[in-house]
Amino acid sequence: MTTSEQIARDLLDIGAVFLRPDDPFTWASGIKSPIYCDNRLTLTSPAVRTHVEEGLVALVREHYPDVEVLMGTSTAGIAHAAICGHLMGLPMGYVRSSSKDHGRQNRIEGRLEAGQKVVVVEDLISTGGSCLEVVEALREAGAQVLGVVSIFTYGLRKGIERFATAGVENHSLCDFDTVCAVAAETGAIRPDDIAKLKRFQSNPEDASWLGV
Q1: Among 108, 118, 166, 192, which has the highest number of CB atoms less than 10 A from its own CB?
Q2: For residues 29 and 178, what is the distance between their CA atoms, to the nearest angstrom?
Q3: What is the pTM of this model?
Q4: Distances (CA, A) of 112 to 142, 146, 167
Q5: Who's near 12: CB < 8 A, 6+ residues apart?
Q6: Long-range contact list for 133-137, CB < 8 A, 24+ apart?
């Protein structure tokens, strides 16, 4: 079993990922989605948390061996950056969604020196907007952002294009296609549901996937 397949099983087992192609969720944007992901639940399952953190550490070591600092996204990436930083013996911090309105008015929390090589730790990549805002804040602070590691990616075209335009690479432990395959294999969805799910993935704003 690959790491991606193990994480997919983990996410499905603890209900961090729900697949409901016949009873879709409604996102805040109004988009009808057959998938809902809450990776915060990985923190409350010690076995899954171990798989996730060891997996993220392996991604960082493989793709970014020169990393000097880990920076978590606020708020979901903070705990994962802290745990990975501990396992790797690296300093960590996090980037707020906006600057504080009091005290030193920091947006970046933790010590960061100009020129340091940083890897961003994120839990979930969808359209990529919030994660790339973190990258931009770090770049503005003088950091050299090597890339991003994350637990899960939807593999949405908009997100892929945004990352490419920003010149940022992302490596995820698990992705939409693997979750769909494992869900079908374990009976969580029907094999013929995958066509619906892939149709959604190709264009989430087009609700015609519901009729596939």
Answers
A1: 118
A2: 25
A3: 0.93
A4: 9, 14, 21
A5: 19, 179, 182, 183, 186, 188
A6: 133/97, 134/71, 134/73, 134/74, 134/95, 135/166, 135/168, 136/166, 137/95, 137/107, 137/108
Using the structure block, give the residue that is written with the tokens 């809902």.
Answer: 36
Please report the pLDDT score of residue 100 as a whole number. Answer: 46
Region of residue 167 (phi > 0: left; psi between -120 and 50: alpha; otherwise: beta): left
DSSP the chain: --HHHHHHHHHHHTTSEEE-TTS-EE-TTS-EESEEE-GGGGGG-HHHHHHHHHHHHHHHHHH-TT--EEEEETTTTHHHHHHHHHHHT--EEEE-SS--SSTT--SEES---TT-EEEEEEEEESS-HHHHHHHHHHHHTT-EEEEEEEEEE---HHHHHHHHHHT--EEEEEEHHHHHHHHHHHTSS-GGGHHHHHHHHH-TT-GGGGG-
- How does pLDDT run along the chain (212 residues), one tens digit per residue? 999 999 999 999 999 999 999 999 998 778 899 999 999 999 999 999 999 999 999 999 999 999 999 999 999 999 999 999 999 999 999 999 765 444 455 789 999 999 999 999 999 999 999 999 999 999 999 999 999 999 999 999 999 999 999 999 999 999 999 999 999 999 999 999 999 999 999 999 998 988 76
Q: Does the N-terminal peptide bond of residue 75 adopt cis geometry, omega within 30 degrees of 0?
A: yes
